[in-house]
Design brief:
Layout lengths: L1 E2 L12 E5 L3 H18 E2 L8 E5 L1 H10 L4 H9 L17 H24 L6 H5 L14 H10 L16 E7 L5 E4 L9 H8 L9 E3 L2 E5 L9 H5 L4 E5 L7 H8 L11 H27 L4 E5 L6 H5 L8 H18 L1 H9 L4 E2 L1 H5 L5 H5 L3 H36 L3
Parallel strand pairs: 2-4, 2-9, 4-5, 9-10
Antiparallel strand pairs: 1-10, 3-11, 5-6, 5-8, 7-8
Helix pairs in contact: 1-2, 1-3, 1-12, 2-7, 6-7
Amino acid sequence: MTTRLRRPPRARSPRIGLALAGGGPLGGIYEVGALLALADSVTGLDLCALDVYVGVSSGGFVAAGLANGMSPSQMYRLFIAEGRDAAMSPSLFMRPALGEFMRRASALPGLALQASVRYLRHPRSHGVGESLALLLRAIPTGLFDAGAIDRFLRELFAAPGRTNDFRTLGRPLFLVATKLDTGESTVFGAPGHDHVPISRAIEASSALPGLFPPVEIDGQHYVDGALNKTLHASLALQAGADLLLCVNPLVPFDAPRAQRQRGETLQRLDQGGLPLVLAQTFRAIIRSRMEAGMASYARHYPDADVLLFEPAREDGDMFFANIFSYAQRERLCALAFATTRSDLRRRAGTLREVLGRHGLALDDARLANDRRTVADALCDPRPLRALQRRRRSVTQTTRELTHALDHLERHLARLRRAPA
């Protein structure tokens, strides 16, 4: 989807932002593949040097990595590739929430006593079922330990050149979670919430109810940030983004189109039972909210260009994959890479004009190469040259700052020596 807008000439350099939606581990895998395709196919685009990043749920994981200077190629090698370079194992998402289980189990005797007393005192007004409803409070609020993700990310962001502190990141990063007690969105990284460690904010933003317990921060409990909005892309537009790139990994499945174009045998999703019905319902809700958001962006930010990248609705591989599965990550990332390249080719005429307004261009030679794969993108020297330019820029800035501090120190010394 493309929001095409006419804009007057600017007196400053265009500001480019990125907004990434959630979608469980599958969503993060798709986003890495899509971003690999964008980095490989768009000349002048450095995804580690954008002006603003927004992430929701698993999209926050990827956005924080980019804001910390981790390229899509590097994230692929660390999180998706199977081998000795991989830093993340699938078990990271599946560690039981033992602390939550123990807290709920320890409360069970007291709740059972309360239920018994309530029934014995008021047997007519409080039936057995109503009294025993108290025992539901002993059910754990989540199955898996999101704290394991926080610990992994703290270690990841502790590496040289990275930071776990929004305030020292050097560029705006907004991670959105939902405050459990009010249902309102909280933007970590914004003033008043930028003291929270980035890893902790990601843990809160991705705490999907039922799978992960709510995350407590400053006395408040937070759950998945996608409960209110799919993208929260307006945060980047409010921060002044002229061009906003958006990736949404979950879309409803179009079964008839899949049957016509790809030979899928399942034409009616009710044949797949409750899991497929729930999956389609969930994706349809997410997609409709995002469409409403895209329409509002065009009205409220008429001088901004918004480009959306997402899977094809007839893609059965994406729909039938478990969004919490990590086992087929390489294949699904390759699918995202190919789908995004196909989308770029299909919209090439429009995209050339939009990207050109922001100093970017499509690499037509690469897009025309139907055999180009993720492996080719991983060998691309352009991200390495961009990293070297960023390092030179940091070095030059450090030198200039050191020179200014030396000059200030000499000036203060002369003032101290001067007679009163």
